[in-house]
Amino acid sequence: MALNDDIALLANVSLFADIGEDKLRLIAFGAERRRVPKGHELFREGAPADCAYAVAVGSFALSKADGDGRAEHVETVGRGTLLSELALISMVERKFTATAEEDSEVIRINRPLFRRMLEEYPEVTAMVEARIRANLEAMIRRVEALAGRFA
């Protein structure tokens, strides 16, 4: 895939939606494209996360271990999905296991590359902070909506 294709893909990722093409070029140029054959794991739940992955081609089944340690399917994601976005900011653990449902490709964005962009473009830092905050608030609302089930 060409650099311009990666820039176009990143522009469709919600976290990067309002970032200009010149800034996305920095990410796309420094990122690494990886192929993941059908049935192979991209990452495993509980593993340290040092990067995020944007799904470029194909789809991934996200699963989480249930109380007995068996994998429970959570959702399937495809092109334009950013996996482990918080890993771009700080050290976290993978919350799911991601397994390719078909031959797939991802764009691996490492934390030092992302931090470099934030340091060079303070206006991007404000946009990213607002997006992550909105995502966290939405997650909190979803959890609060479930709280009644467990009371």
Automatic annotation (TrEMBL):
Keyword Electron transport assigned: no
GO cellular component: cytosol
Keywords: Kinase, Transferase
A matching Pfam family: cNMP_binding
Signal peptide range in chain numbering: none
Domain of life: Bacteria
Classification via InterPro entries: cNMP-bd_dom, cNMP-bd_dom_sf, Env_Response_Regulators, RmlC-like_jellyroll
Domain Cyclic nucleotide-binding per the UniProt entry, residue ranges: 15-118
Keyword check for Ion transport: no
GO molecular function: DNA-binding transcription factor activity; kinase activity
PANTHER family given in the database record: CRP FAMILY TRANSCRIPTIONAL REGULATORY PROTEIN (PTHR24567), DNA-BINDING TRANSCRIPTIONAL DUAL REGULATOR CRP (PTHR24567:SF68)
Name listed for the protein in its UniProt record: Protein kinase
Organism per entry: Sinorhizobium saheli
Lineage: Bacteria, Pseudomonadati, Pseudomonadota, Alphaproteobacteria, Hyphomicrobiales
